Structure formats: structure tokens, C-alpha cells
Amino acid sequence: MKICVIGLGYIGLPTASMFAKAGHDVVGVDKNERIISALNRGEIIIEEKGLSELVQSMTAAGRLRGSLMPETADVFIIAVPTPITAEKKAEMRYVESAAREITPFVRQGNTVILESTSPVGTVDQLLAPILAASGLAIGEELYLGHSPERVIPGQILQELIRNSRIAGGINAASAQKIADIYRCFVEGEIYISDSRTAELCKLAENTYRDINIAYANELAMICEQTGVNVWEAISLCNKHPRVNIHQPGPGVGGHCIAVDPWFIVEKQPERAQLIRQARRINDNMPHFMAQKIAALTQGKDKAKIAVLGVTYKPDVDDTRESPVLELIELLRGQGYRVAAADPHALGFERDSYAAAKDADLLLLGVHHRQYRELDLARLAQAMRQPLLLDTRNFFDRAAAEQAGFAYHLLGEK
Fold first, then answer.
1. Distant-in-sequence, close-in-space partners of 329: CB < 8 Å, separation ≥ 6
2. pLDDT digits over 346-382, tens only?
3. Which residues of the chain have pLDDT under 70?
4. Is 256 tagged catalytic?
């Protein structure tokens, strides 16, 4: 088959590469000329384990190339961003634009698959009417549906293969077509369903995690008032065979967990009460952390805060919806001087010791693996006041204190 993938971000490019590896002719489409130029040189501009080597081999084999415009194909996969607006609504203009751009190129027997995470009803209420302008009967001459990814950065290629998928069609024929298409590389189960169920499942999966994290964050704030270490409490609670409380932190980031619940709230604002409240709790965590920092640095005029880690999760370069970045902006707005370092994120200091120089508080925002190798004594010596605020229960308290830090932990009085 010839497959046209619209959107070459964290999902689109790995997906395109996997189809190419399966032997298909794949053209990846993106508006970003830098992405297309890099792809056609066999290079990538994002960080993902194994992806660089795969892209290089597939472009060299002539099975993967980039283009600024769609082309005729057998299958069209839309994997463009669906960000959240300031009003907590789904921004669907990229999906709409992608659908309009491929409409002149679709032919009888083609399949169009939406991978972008979207509110329930996007396929039948937004995509189907646009694609109907092709003159093809949707579900009979042009197959259409939704098949959401279920992967995490850092393990995308392996999870694309191993994880189960939902093939949600606008009708049964479309669902079967979608399932058949992904079977060329997916080893996990592929479950047949309708497009609305597939859309809701992706949202519900991430919302479950968001609610669980909100519970952990609320417990952390409660524990700070009651003299309990939340990390110990959660660990003991999780010894129960039917309990699995997630971990607290400075907030929830990423393009999925921090965004998808709002897509449910948008469509069902009167009923999605628990979902909305969980989002509010997690969105408030940077403000809670700013208050904690203010209490720890009380009396320090224009205190300097050194932040370790700004990505939305450890060991990736993705900063989308990062709560640490929001916290940094809050601190700067309150008059703090902030130096942020991250070994993965572009545009930030990579030297943790340089960021810590003359700082009054060191904040661990993201627990990257390589922070295990930090010389805590050297960090403490570089600071004006060796205060350490650990938001991830990452550093060993005894080791930090021996290095000269006054150690403070989120979720502990």
C-alpha cells in the first residue's frame, strides 16, 4: 500500500516509520519545512529511542520520505496536534485543515484514519462531512474511523508494536479495514469497535490516570498538614491487593493526561464533575509549589531558585504542558530569579552545577535518570543557601543532608 501520514510529530513520525518498516510506501506530510528537510536527509529533530536509526534506514531504502503536501494514496492517517485552548476547549483546526487538504486526493476504496486524540464525535461530526465533499459515499466507497495510539515517549516504537489497539470505524466495514491496515506491524490485540467508542476510550484511559494523580496530589497536601509522609503512606496503601495509588508531583504535563480530560468536560460539562475537579487539583499544583517555595525562602530578598528538569516527564525532551515550566513562570512573576537546567530539553542550561551557582533553593522538578549521578556536595557548595526541595522523592534524604543540604520533600511536613 501507499500510506500518507499527515503530521510528523511524536506519534506521526514513529507510525510512518513502522508502516515503512512493514514494507509499505510511506509519505509523511508536515507544514514544518525543517521537519521535512530533516526527514528527507534521514534525520529527525525529536528525541525518541531507536527512531533515528529506523528513519535513517527507511529513507535509505526509499520507503519513507517527506512532503509539504499530501499525495494520492491508499491510506491517509491524520496525526496532527489537538491542543487545548485557554478556555479549556479542544483546538480542532489542525484536524479540520488536514481533512480538507486530503479531500482532493482521496479515491474510491481509500481509508482515512484519525489518530489524533479528539473529542467524542469528531469522526462523524467533523471529518465525515468534510470528506463527503469528495463525492464518495462515507463508509462504502471511502472508509473512515479512529484508531488512537497508546504509547509513552521513550518507548514509542516498542509500544506501537506490542500494545493493543482499538479500530473504531464509522461503520463495521471501516472498522475492519482499519484493523487490517494496522495488523502489518501491531502484534498486540486489535479490537473492533465504532469511532465514538474509540474516541471515548482514549480520553477515558488518560482521564483515569489524571484522577488518580489528583488523588495522590490531594493526599500530599493533606499529609503536609497532618505530619504524615505521603510517599510512605502511598507505598503502604499499595500493599493492598486492590489498591494502586499513583505518585504525587508538581503537576501533570504532556499532551495527553493534562489535556484529554478537558475534551470530556467540553462535551459533557454538567456531568463531568469529578473529571473537572481532578483537572483543577492537578492544574493548581504549580501554585501550591510556589507557595511552598515562598515559605522556604522567606526573608530572602530576590531569592534565586535553581530548577533541575523542565520536561513533562523524565528522560524525554517533550515540554508540552509541563507544570515545571508553569511553575518557573509563576516564580519569575513573583520576583524570583530562576535558573533552569535540563539535559534533554532544548533551550535550557545543561549544566546543573552552573544553574545551582549562588542559588537559595534547589528544586527537583523532573527526576531524569542521570540526576542519580549528580555530586550533591558540589551542588550544595555552589549554592548561597543549600536548600533542596524534592518534588519526586528522588534523592536519598540521608545522602542529601550529608552533602550539606537542608532537605525538604513534597508531601511531608
1. none
2. 899 999 999 999 999 999 999 999 999 999 999 999 9
3. none
4. yes
**d(C-alpha 341, C-alpha 306), whole Å:** 8
User: Which residue in 177, 201, 256, 313 is the catalytic one?
Assistant: 256
Q: What is the pLDDT of residue 320?
A: 92
Q: Which sequence spans correspond to the domains of the chain? A: 2-194, 231-409
Shortest CA distance to 5 belongs to which of 34, 21, 25?
25
pTM: 0.93
Query: pLDDT per residue over 141-158, tens digit each?
Result: 999 999 999 998 889 999
Write out pLDDT tens, residues 206-248.
999 999 999 999 999 999 999 999 999 999 999 999 999 999 9
Topology alike, domains 2-194 and 231-409: yes
Active-site position among 202, 292, 304, 313: 202
Are 364 and 396 in contact by the 8 Å Cβ rule? The answer is no
**Residue 291 in 3-state DSSP?**
helix
CA distance 95 to 78: 7
DSSP letter (8 states) at residue 373: G
50 torsion bin: left (phi>0), alpha (psi -120 to 50), beta (else): left
pLDDT for residue 301: 80
List the helix and strand counts (H, then E) for the chain.
15, 13
Q: Spelled out in words, what is the top-level CATH class assigned to the domain 2-194?
A: alpha beta
| C-beta of residue 328 within 8 angstroms of C-beta of residue 338 | yes
Instruction: Tell me if the domain spanning 231-409 has CATH number 3.40.50.720.
Output: yes
* CA–CA dist 220, 246 (Å, integer): 11
Return the C-alpha cell found at 367.
527526576
CA distance 83 to 230: 32
Q: Which of 385, 398, 401, 394 is nearest to 366 (CA)?
A: 394
